Amino acid sequence: MEEVAEKAKHTASDQKEAVIEIKGLKKSFGKKQVLKNINLSVKRGENVVILGRSGTGKSVTIQCVVGMLTPDKGTVKVLGQEVEQLNDRELKELRTKIGFLFQSAALYDSMTVRENLEFALKRVMRVTNQSELNKRVKEMLENVGLPDAAEKMPSDLSGGMRKRIGLARTLIVHPEIMLYDEPTTGLDPITSREISQLILEMQRKYKTTSIIITHDMDCARVVSDRVLIMDDGEYKAEGSFDELSKSKDELVKSYFI
Ligand SMILES: Nc1ncnc2c1ncn2[C@@H]1O[C@H](COP(=O)(O)OP(=O)(O)O)[C@@H](O)[C@H]1O
Ligand SMILES: [Mg+2]
Question: Start and end of every ABC transporter domain (predicted)?
Answer without folding.
Answer: 20-257
